[in-house]
Structure formats: structure tokens, C-alpha cells
Design goal:
Number of domains: 2
Radius of gyration: 17 Å
Helix content: 40-55%
Number of strands: 2
Strand order of the largest sheet: 1-2
Distance between the termini: 23 Å
Strand content: 5-15%
Order of helices and strands: EEHHHH
Length: 116
């Protein structure tokens, strides 16, 4: 399952917070910025990451674009009604179910068990 945090970047990261690592690239030692895992804490961050995912996903599956926007609305509704933690939990559990059985978990149909 994809971690939506991989689609976001901390906005106010200073040079002092930048982590570097050495890698061997074709016999040469290079310093590269180490990718810091970002945890989503707000619905705005989740939406930003999800929109990035949708842009990539819809290049391969353009017919799913409306369903994905419906799904985003469902997650936002959960966040308004039950809080961000509940929305993130709903999203993670829904996507786990979708990985196991995509036909049983279409993007535009709320999971009744999770949605309650």
C-alpha cells in the first residue's frame, strides 16, 4: 500500500534539517539528499498527496478520475464528521481492502463497515 506521505514534502524544511547520505553510483561516491518519511497530519496534507496520486493514477486509468474525486470527498466527509485520524484510518483500511480485492472496493462506493 502506498504511503501518501511519500507524495508530500515538508514546506519549511531548513538546510540544517536536510539529511544527506553517501551512495555508490557507478563507482563514484555521491552525496544525495536522504528522503525523510513524512507523516500526514491534516486533511489538507492528505488531499494534496491524494491529488498527486490521482494525477499519476489517471494517466494509466483515466476512466477512474470521477470515482477518485468521489473517494476524496468521502474521506473529507469522514474528516469533518469524525476527525482527521478517523479519515486517515478509513483511507488506509479502504486501500488495504482494495489491494486485496479491487472489484469489491470500487473507489466511488463507501465501505459500509468502515464508514459507520
Amino acid at each position: 500500500m502506498l504511503n501518501w506521505g511519500a507524495f508530500t514534502f515538508p514546506k519549511n524544511q531548513s538546510a540544517a534539517e536536510t539529511k544527506l547520505e553517501m551512495i555508490n553510483a557507478g563507482g563514484q561516491v555521491c552525496l544525495v539528499q536522504k528522503r525523510v518519511r513524512f507523516t500526514i497530519k491534516t486533511i489538507d496534507q492528505w488531499c494534496s498527496a491524494f491529488r498527486t496520486f490521482v494525477a499519476a493514477y489517471c494517466r494509466r486509468f483515466p476512466v477512474d478520475s470521477v470515482s477518485l474525486m468521489t473517494y476524496m470527498n468521502q474521506v473529507q466527509t469522514v474528516a469533518r464528521q469524525a476527525g482527521v485520524a478517523a479519515a486517515i484510518y478509513y483511507d488506509e483500511q479502504f486501500r488495504k481492502g482494495r489491494e486485496q480485492n479491487p472489484a469489491r472496493h470500487p473507489w466511488d462506493v463507501p465501505d459500509e463497515i468502515l464508514y459507520i
